Amino acid sequence: MRQNTKVKIAKALIDEVAIIPLSEINVSNLINESGVSRKSFYNHFDGLDSVSDYTIEMVNDSLDLDDFMQIDNTEELVTRGFEILTNAIYKHRDEIKILYTSDLSGRWMKFLITTYSTIVKEVVFANYNNKNIIPKSAAITVYVYTMIALIKDWITQPIPVKPVVFRKYLAKVLKTAPEDLIYGPHHKF
User: Fold this and answer.
1) Domain boundaries for CATH 1.10.10 within the chain
2) Given this structure, which CATH class describes domain 5-58?
3) Alpha-carbon 1 to chain mean position
4) Cys-Cys with 84: which of 68, 73, 143, 146 at CB 3.0–4.6 Å?
């Protein structure tokens, strides 16, 4: 089966950014790595920025998280949702590790925050009491950033633990108060 031209170029970007800084990559690098013509490249992309954006969307789409995005309650998110998410991430760990550790990491993080804040807002914080210590928007930010940081730490390990092990850790951490994570459950202020 012939690979789609856009996919070839995106995979070329992943291969290149894994070994050299994005600032040193140019269209010629991607043309040579992907085997497409310059004309074909510009039929699909305006330049490196549009390739970068497409690459991030392509990797996210490859995770096939439609079922994850349909979850509508916290308990299902922590059980079935985390299973879907961690299995998908683990399956595509090589590409995701590159997105987290390369010069594409800033774009990747912004994309993740924008994309996944919605489900966290609608599911985890649906009944958030505005009388809590921090505003709902700040609580969502803390939750999403924590989740992304934990996933990054997991998937960028030389040999990540299996998803079933990580899921238990992820659920436990996300249910634990931040000060207990940092100082232990028996701390006193």
Assistant:
1) 5-58
2) mainly alpha
3) 28
4) 68
